[in-house]
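Two proteins were folded this term; both appear here.
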Amino acid sequence: MSMSRREFTRLVAGGSAMAALGQLTQTASLAQTSQPYRAMVGVFLFGGNDGWNMVIPNDSRYAAYASTRNSALVLPQSSLMALSGTPFALHPSFAPLQGAWNEGAMSVILNAGTLYAPLNKTLYQTRPDLNPLNLMSHPDEQAHWEGNRARSVSLDGFMGRLNDKLPTSAVPPLVSVTGANLMTIGAASSPLILPSTGSIVRNGYVAGSNDTVVKARQAALDAFADGGGMGSITQLTGTGLSSAYAQAVTANGIISAATSTVDQYFKNPTTGATLTSDISRQLLRVARMIEARSALSHNRQAFFVSQGGYDTHSNQTDANSPATGTQANLFSDLAMALAGFYGAMKALGVGPNVTAFTMSDFGRVYKGNAQRGSDHAWGSNHIVVGGGLAGSKVIGAYPNQTMGGPDDINADGRFLPSIAIEEYVGSIAMWHGVSSADMSYVFPNWATWSSGGRGPVPLFS
């Protein structure tokens, strides 16, 4: 059976540093451009974040929020983190990001989600051909967010396709710190995949071993990695192994260095203790890779990190204490990690050049359920953090809170999104440097969302 280079690349794309095999035969040098450095950091909240308890109306609409949601979910208005200058507030766990908001470096996106075409409730009910497939399914909605094909299968993701258009370098400018995901697979490139703890290791490799079997195995691997004179497929494979080994050595030198300028910013703002959550460890590794951008010859970087645990069908809040519990703990870890990351970017002098943004499978039912939880829904709210934003603002329209009303597809608060993924993330991609000519490549349905009065949301000047 013959195997093309592209097929081979897809075969190996799931394995740690081996994911870098997508960079086979590409040049290791990157010509510096006159464009300013830019990095985008996608933060996926796996499980379906209840964005209606992340962003809360803080004006007269709070009364409808309090009366419509299950009382076990309703946050006391006095506990909320007010977003000055707007009629909205955040869950109190986001207090560590108050400084970013005050500095004009955090914005909120209201009611965004997967859309195939512009919809209203009538079209949703009468034109099923315009609706995304398998709504409210975890794997399908994750694939919609990552691959941006709401009515067909995606074999690659928008960050991977963005990487296809970036200049090449010895270490890929696209890095995942959350394993192999559709998001980072490109048609002609693959990411560098870093662990959130420890270093990249070669399976079966023991440096300095005197064991005869281990030494023989390592000698065989070294010979295979050389690949010379063994045929085209073997040579291709060997070149990939050699490249991956080299990338691992470079990356390990960055993520495993004893100290770094950015480490000091990943501290609990109240206790001063080092942050230990997985999302904080991931963002610390992103910060270290950004710190090393010049040594890596990266003028553009993209990162994918994630936080799990958001499928909160029950016990989303503590009994008799809506401001504490599972979701509050997740938000606290997320907020402290993002605040530390934002502080590290400012210290590196690239605050305006780095933008972090949240994504999630879907939102949750506004009404809530009887188990102090919330079930799968559709539209949700998101936050964006970065010094390059055009000030702190709330973008979009909060849905009509009437159950069964014009924005509710199921009479319990499953709100139809008013902002498409492409309008939200497309704005960040354009800021990152994706050209107008390449937007339809990175976002296959871009034509739908860049005409007829639709377009990227105004996050940046």
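Next, the second protein.
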Amino acid sequence: MAAATSAPRRLSLKRKYAMLTRGLGWETTYQPMDKVYPFDRFEGIVIHDWDGWEDPFRLTVDAYWKYQAEKERKLYAVMDSVAQNNGQLGITDARYLNAVKLFLTGVTPLEYAAHRGFAHAGRHLRGVGARIAAQMQSLDELRHAQTQIHTLSHYNKYFDGLHDFAHMHDRVWYLSVPKSFFDDALTAGPFEFVTAISFSFEYVLTNLLFVPFMSGAAFNGDMATVTFGFSAQSDESRHMTLGLEVVKFMLEQDPANVPIVQRWLDKWFWRGYRLLSLVSAMMDYMLPKRVMSWAEAWEMYFEESGGALFADLERYGIRPPKHHDVAKKEKSRLSHEVWTILYNYTHAAAFHTWVPSDDEMQWLSSKYPDTFDRLYRPRYRMWREAAARGERFYNDALPQLCNVCQIPMAFTEPDDPTKIAFRESIWRGERFHFCSDGCKDIFDDEPEKMSQSWLPVHQIFQGNCGGASIEDVLRYYHLNIGADNLDYEGSPEQELWDAWTADRRTAR
């Protein structure tokens, strides 16, 4: 009698994962590995053992698609519900939508840029585990861009400024701030790119963007935005873990990596902090119902959480990023300085600004007792009085931009909020200007790269933005003049919202 054949042994999840990922790699023979992977050594990072890479989340491709498909079904069900039930009427105030405009035009294109960057890193990191992790994040980022566009497109049916976000992202002055951040990261090597995005932005700073924005959306009745935030949150957790893993992996591989990683952490902390200054204005000024102040968010998500993180990294020889003490000093005035910039130049922006109401100024005073009443309330009173006379203030002069963060030079000295900070460097006979020691340090470390920055104001002066007049530039931006821009008071958006509000009161 023939012996019974045993059933094949079922693979464990760990073994199955290893076969579907690590088992796909090999050492090349026809061409040397350095020629196939030319980019992961030129930065100076030394890797002795790629097998030392620990994957943050062990997801195989088949499990990934099933997992994301389930989230997609839930997301689009809610999106359909929002559209069918006139979800735009559920928000607190039309002013809130200006935060959504800033997010769609400034952040959503960055998701697509991250998709491209991680796809490139996934091709050029020779370690199989690192390649799989980068490719998974590339897919996540593409999905995030798509879901944000689909979700926020509902508001484009009714509100201004959302109609041509992709065109605007490459041209409009304030959008050069997020765009230059990712252009800088995309043109770095693969290790610096992953450090910049997965660690410095995703792990250290992403809570300052996503948590306040999604919480603010919930507080202000924007269930469409809340839904895509929840849909992306599990992905963000994976990205944060990847960021921490790649930094620890580099630090554990060779002591020579420590100063390189420290230099990147210094740079990308400051670049990310300056980028998130736009979020500070959103939190303190653009939300009719506020969740917390920027200062409170900074204390919670960077000073406390970030402090614990860098205490953990201290055993590798890593210190907190340079100039973090300056960010701590600026937390009580950052949002007010950024709102001042946006108020000055809202005639050249695809969103509206306004002078805070008395109740809003009282809230700001309670959150910033040491600075608001002394430094900023008088300014708002002056602007309100000018607007009442029909002389709403717009700054018609083109501002000087910081050559690194590309924000107009309106930030103040760390120890003197009444004095504009100004730094400069001369390189190859040309003078470059900076808003801070942090931005100057970044330029001085990489002058050949940073001197090539595409600065919107310089491009306007050179005649590369449609013409010489403001109207010419706004047409080049594809702005609908008088609808997308200017003050919220008297805008078509306010008139539409007031009409809707009046109809609902009458219906009751």
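The mean pLDDT is 92. The chain has one domain: 20-25+31-507. These notes refer to the second protein only.
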